[in-house]
Design brief:
elongated
C-alpha cells in the first residue's frame, strides 16, 4: 500500500508500527525518519515515532522530537503527557513534572497543574534555566487563582 500511496501518512505509520512490532526496529526507525522528512511535524506521525523511540530505549530522541512539535504546533493533552513520559524516561524528572503541569492545565485542573510545577521546583539538581522557567510558570498559574482567599484555598487544597 505504501508504495502505491506514498502520500497517505497512515500507511507509513502502519508500516513503521508493523516493523517495530515484528522486531525490525532499525527498519521501523528508517521508515519513521523518511516519513518525518516528508511530513514534518505531522501530529499522529510524530506521536507514533516518539512512542517507538521510547519503546526502543531512546527517550532523549523522543523528547527532542516532541519538543520540536510542542514549540511549533498547538499541543494536545496526549502530546503533553507523552513529552512528560519521554522526559521522565530520559531521567529529566523536573521537566517531566513541568510538562505534566501543562497537561493538567489543558484538561482544566488548575490545582494539579500548580502541584506539578511545585514538584518540578523541588526536584533535586534542577538547572538554573529550568528553575526560572518553572518559577515563571508557577507565577502564571497563580495569577489564574481568584483573589478571594476562601475560593483560592478551595482550589489549592481541594474540596
Amino acid at each position: 500500500f505504501v508504495t502505491e500511496n506514498p502520500t497517505i501518512i497512515a500507511y507509513r505509520i502502519g508500516e513503521a508500527e508493523a516493523l517495530q512490532a515484528s522486531g525490525a526496529g532499525d527498519k521501523a526507525m528508517a521508515v519513521y525518519r523518511e516519513a518525518q522528512r516528508l511530513f514534518p511535524r505531522n501530529i499522529p506521525l510524530t506521536i507514533s515515532h516518539a512512542e517507538a523511540l521510547i519503546a526502543a530505549g531512546k527517550p532523549a530522541e523522543a523528547h527532542a522530537l516532541l519538543l520540536d512539535l510542542l514549540n511549533n504546533v498547538e499541543a494536545t493533552p496526549e502530546q503533553l503527557r507523552l513529552i512528560a513520559r519521554a522526559a521522565n524516561a530520559e531521567g529529566d524528572v523536573g521537566n517531566a513534572y513541568f510538562y505534566m503541569s501543562y497537561y493538567y492545565a489543558s484538561i482544566g485542573n488548575l490545582r494539579l497543574s500548580i502541584n506539578q510545577v511545585r514538584m518540578a521546583l523541588e526536584t533535586p539538581g534542577v538547572h538554573t534555566v529550568d528553575r526560572a522557567r518553572f518559577e515563571a510558570r508557577l507565577k502564571q498559574l497563580m495569577d489564574y487563582l481568584p483573589d478571594n482567599p476562601r475560593d483560592r484555598s478551595a482550589i489549592l487544597n481541594g474540596p
